[in-house]
C-alpha cells in the first residue's frame, strides 16, 4: 500500500470530503482516513439536520438526489408569535450527502481508508510529517489536515485549537411522521425550515422543525451549556428530556411517531478560533469552530474551509519548491477570516446576546421583525452593527447590562 501522499486528511465529513474532492480534481495524491466502517458509513457521524441554501448547492455542485426536501422559506418562532421570511433552501439527507462526497472525490482519484481511527501526529524535527492510526499504523504526507470535527486529535496535540467546555454546544434530533404541519395558531410549516427561540424548550439555544415532505419533519434542539443555559435550565433535565418535553406539550406532535433509526446527535464548539494552522498542518471544518454561531449552519462553512485549505495546499505544492511551512500556510487563516467566517467575533457576541434575551423579548423580536424590512435580519445576521442596533430598544438596557456582566465582568448600577 502506498504510504506517502501529497495530502493526508483525517475525517470524511463535509470538510474533509470537500477538501479531498478539490485536491483530487487538481491531480494531487490524497488519502482520507475515516474512523467509521464503510458498510455503515455514516453511522455515529450521521448527525446533522443538514438544512442548507442554494449558494452552497451551486458552489459545490451538490446533486438533487441528496436533497430530501426543497424549502421556500425560513420561519422564526417565539413562544407566542412567528415571523416568515421567503428564502429558498434545501434539507439534505446527510448520509447520502456524505457518501456523495466520498464517491465524487474517489472518481478523481482520492483514496479512502475506512476503519482508520487517527490518534496522533508523527513528528520529525518538530514538524508533523504523517499520522498514526489504529494504534501502530502510519501514513505520511507533505501536508496533513485535521477534519475530524470536534474530536480534533491532531489539532489538539499540535496545540492548534483549544476547544473550551463552556463553548460546547450539543444537539439532538429525531425524524417523525404524523406531524400537524399546518396547525391553526402556528405558522404553516409546509416547505419551511423553522427555528424556535423559547427557553422553555431549549434554554440558552433554539429548537427546530424542518419539513421533509407530507407530514414528516426533522425535529430537534440544541443549546450551549453556558451562563444563558444555566439561567433558564431546569434541574436535572438532560437534552433528551427537553426534546421529550417539547414533544409532549406542543399540539403539533400529538399524533407524531418517531421514524425507526432516524436519530441524530452531535456537538460543536461556538467560539472564535485563534490560529488554524502550523508547519505542514491545517485544521478545517468543525475542528476549528466553523459553525455559524447564530443559526448553527455548519455545512457550508465546513465545505468552504475545506476549499480554502485545498487552495492553500495547492499554492505550496504546485511549485514543488515551496515548503508548506507555517508562514506559507498563513494564507489559509487569512482566507478563512475573509471568506469563510467574516465578522465572526461580532456575530458571536450577537449570538450570546440573543440567547440571553427572555421569552417575552423573543415575542417582541418577532413583532419587530414583522415591522422592519426583510434586510434588517439578513444584515444583523452578517454582523452589521446598525442593523443590530435597529433590533435593540430602550427596553433592552437590562439585557445589555446582564450581557456586559457575563461577557466582560462589567456591572451597571
Ligand atoms: C444535531 C445537529 C444538527 C445540525 N444541523 C445543521 C443544519 O441544519 N445545517 C448545517 O449547515 N449544519 C448543521 N449542523 C452542523 C454540521 O453538521 C457540522 O457543522 C458539519 O457536519 C461539520 O462537518 P465536519 O466535516 O467539520 O465534521 P464532521 O461532520 O463531524 O465529520 C468528521 C468526520 O471525521 C470522522 N472522525 C472523527 N474522529 C476521527 C478520528 N479520530 N479518525 C478518523 N476519523 C474521525 C467522523 O466519523 C466524521 O465522519 C448540525 C449539527 C448537529 C450536531
TrEMBL record:
Coiled coil: none annotated. GO terms for molecular function: FAD binding. Residues 5-305 form the FAD-binding domain. Gene3D superfamilies: FAD/NAD(P)-binding domain (3.50.50.60). Pfam families: FAD_binding_3. NCBIfam families: Dggglyphlred_Halo (NF041385). This is FAD-binding protein. It comes from Natronorubrum halalkaliphilum. The lineage of its organism: Archaea, Methanobacteriati, Methanobacteriota, Stenosarchaea group, Halobacteria.
Amino acid at each position: 500500500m502506498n504510504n506517502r501522499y501529497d495530502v493526508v486528511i483525517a475525517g470524511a465529513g463535509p470538510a474533509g470530503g470537500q477538501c479531498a474532492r478539490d485536491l483530487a480534481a487538481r491531480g494531487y495524491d490524497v488519502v482520507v482516513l475515516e474512523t467509521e466502517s464503510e458498510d455503515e458509513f455514516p453511522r455515529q457521524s450521521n448527525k446533522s439536520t443538514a438544512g442548507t441554501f442554494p449558494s452552497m448547492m451551486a458552489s459545490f455542485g451538490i446533486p438533487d438526489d441528496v436533497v430530501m426536501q426543497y424549502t421556500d422559506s425560513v420561519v422564526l418562532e417565539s413562544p407566542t408569535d412567528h415571523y416568515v421570511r421567503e428564502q429558498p433552501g434545501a434539507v439534505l439527507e446527510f448520509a447520502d450527502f456524505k457518501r456523495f462526497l466520498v464517491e465524487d472525490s474517489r472518481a478523481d482519484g482520492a483514496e479512502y481508508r475506512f476503519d482508520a481511527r487517527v490518534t496522533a501526529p508523527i513528528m520529525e524535527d518538530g514538524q508533523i510529517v504523517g499520522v498514526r492510526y489504529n494504534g501502530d499504523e502510519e501514513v505520511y504526507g507533505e501536508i496533513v489536515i485535521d477534519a475530524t470535527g470536534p474530536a480534533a486529535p491532531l489539532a489538539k496535540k499540535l496545540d492548534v485549537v483549544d476547544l473550551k467546555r463552556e463553548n460546547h454546544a450539543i444537539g439532538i434530533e429525531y425524524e417523525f411522521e404524523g406531524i400537524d404541519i399546518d396547525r391553526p395558531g402556528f405558522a404553516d410549516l409546509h416547505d419551511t425550515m423553522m427555528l424556535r427561540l423559547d427557553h422553555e424548550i431549549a434554554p440558552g439555544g433554539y429548537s427546530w422543525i424542518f419539513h421533509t415532505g407530507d407530514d414528516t419533519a426533522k425535529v430537534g434542539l440544541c443549546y450551549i451549556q453556558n451562563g444563558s443555559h444555566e439561567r433558564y435550565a431546569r434541574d436535572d433535565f438532560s437534552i433528551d428530556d427537553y426534546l421529550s418535553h417539547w414533544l409532549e406539550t406542543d399540539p403539533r406532535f400529538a399524533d407524531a411517531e418517531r421514524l425507526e433509526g432516524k436519530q441524530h446527535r452531535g456537538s460543536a464548539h461556538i467560539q472564535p478560533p485563534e490560529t488554524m494552522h502550523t508547519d505542514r498542518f491545517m485544521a478545517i471544518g468543525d475542528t476549528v469552530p466553523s459553525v455559524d454561531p447564530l443559526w448553527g449552519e455548519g455545512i457550508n462553512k465546513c465545505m468552504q474551509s475545506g476549499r480554502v485549505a485545498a487552495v492553500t495546499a495547492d499554492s505550496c505544492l504546485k511549485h514543488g519548491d515551496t515548503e508548506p511551512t507555517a508562514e506559507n500556510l498563513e494564507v489559509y487563516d487569512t482566507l478563512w477570516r475573509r471568506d469563510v467566517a467574516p465578522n465572526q467575533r461580532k456575530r458571536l457576541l450577537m449570538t450570546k446576546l440573543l440567547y440571553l434575551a427572555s421569552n417575552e423579548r423573543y415575542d417582541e423580536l418577532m413583532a419587530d421583525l414583522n415591522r422592519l424590512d426583510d434586510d434588517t435580519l439578513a444584515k444583523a445576521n452578517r454582523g452589521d452593527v446598525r442593523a443590530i442596533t435597529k433590533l435593540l430598544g430602550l427596553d433592552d438596557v437590562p439585557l445589555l447590562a446582564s450581557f456586559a456582566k457575563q461577557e466582560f465582568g462589567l456591572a451597571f448600577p
